[in-house]
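FAQ: What does a ligand-bound record look like?

Like this one, built around 2-acetamido-2-deoxy-beta-D-glucopyranose:
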Amino acid sequence: MSKRILLQLLFAALAVSTKLPFKAHFGNKPAPFLIDVDQSFIEETRVKASLTRIATDLVQHDPRDGPLVQNVSAIKDYWTHNYNWNKAQKQLNDHLPQFTTTIDGAGNYSHPIPLHFVHRRSSRKDAIPLLFVHGYPGSFIEVDRVIDGYSNPPSNETAFHVVAPSLPGFGFSPAPEYFGLGLREAGQAFHKLMLQLGYNKYLVHGGDLGSHTIRYMAIDHPESVRALHTNLWYQVPNKQDMDRFNAKNSTAEEAFLINVLAAFRLTLLGQRQVFENQPLQWAYAATDSPVGFAAWVIFELQAGSPSYSWTIDELITWTMLLYIQGPFGSARMYKELQLRASLTTFTSRWASLSLPNKALSRSVKHPKDWAPRQGNIVFFNSYSFGGHFAAWEVPNELVADAREFMKPGTAAWDAYHK
Ligand SMILES: *[C@@H]1O[C@H](CO)[C@@H](O)[C@H](O)[C@H]1NC(C)=O
Ligand SMILES: *[C@@H]1O[C@H](CO)[C@@H](O)[C@H](O)[C@H]1NC(C)=O
Ligand SMILES: *[C@@H]1O[C@H](CO)[C@@H](O)[C@H](O)[C@H]1NC(C)=O
Ligand SMILES: *[C@@H]1O[C@H](CO)[C@@H](O)[C@H](O)[C@H]1NC(C)=O
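The answer part, i.e. the structure of the complex:
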């Protein structure tokens, strides 16, 4: 081999390995992966955190303006002096078997799609493959508290082989380099991933963005997606619902959901509109300020899960899992959704799409009567506790529901085995 070719090879290798601040190789079949973020990047991020200039608030704080100055300052201090990424990285690596692969395009997106994913096979021969899709501002870390329960249940309960991919732009799945990879295409890529792993029929689970992804999958791959379990069954009230609400005649569940939706419009809709419109404009600041980006993440997490006590370690680690590769790709996913009109008009679109599969809804205080308006619900469970990030907040309840939904003799079990 000539010197010139060697140099070119070396240069190509460097070009790939220096692009992202973590070690990764994306081949054409699944290969084991360990999180290994460059120490120089971790230290640079800590220094940036220590140099954060904190915003000045009004004398009287309005919670809709953003998180409290005290809370963001506490994150800055903790990140500067106490936060230990290497410990978080080790815990994830010790607990979650991870892999990388490449999918050769999906649907209308013809470019290769490098993916990072968690894959734990149950030791049970009768285990059912389960694809778990995370949301925003989450990542594959959401599977951490449910993976043991899914894959290693008591012997008389249903077991699952668990596959939890990172959406492109999240965790360690690199963001798409080209326009056109939205949640539908991500779902098409995840289906190809399941086929690569030898699973040609399976159950899907998701909340938040994951719930949108798995609905697309159920529609695009009805032969494989035999059942669907979600903790976000987004349902907008119709005119009669609102009339009864205005007459103070709603049930407690209906009133709760209507109030949640109104609060969402007041607090979190603005964030989404930034992502839908100028994600890059936003990303310059967020990419350069880890604490500034954390303030964005914690606002969403605390609004979504107000009764859950997020620790500062959790908040920073969740932030890091979007920050390490840069927060642009994950934010831009909302633009892809908006361009396909799938989030802004999704209620009317999805109401007309009846799911080909038996569907399950497990949702926090969701009105039971409303759920079947969007599909064939064969299992429904509603809790008076927990929030938007169910797999993190109420993992045991979520796993128990999946087992119950998929136990022998149920409609979902039959749909899987036929
Ligand atoms: C935010 O700060 C307030 C006031 O110091 C404190 O009561 C609250 O516990 C903090 N919240 C979090 C999540 O740290
Ligand atoms: C490709 O895009 C067209 C136009 O938006 C759409 O009708 C079609 O369903 C898409 N195909 C796939 C496989 O996603
Ligand atoms: C499995 O056994 C436990 C303990 O006896 C019981 O509570 C549970 O209902 C059983 N599950 C099924 C699916 O029969
Ligand atoms: C309130 O609900 C009850 C029971 O469903 C119904 O009989 C009554 O007409 C409702 N009142 C209004 C104002 O909608």
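Follow-up question: can I read anything off the structure? Yes, for example: The mean pLDDT is 89.
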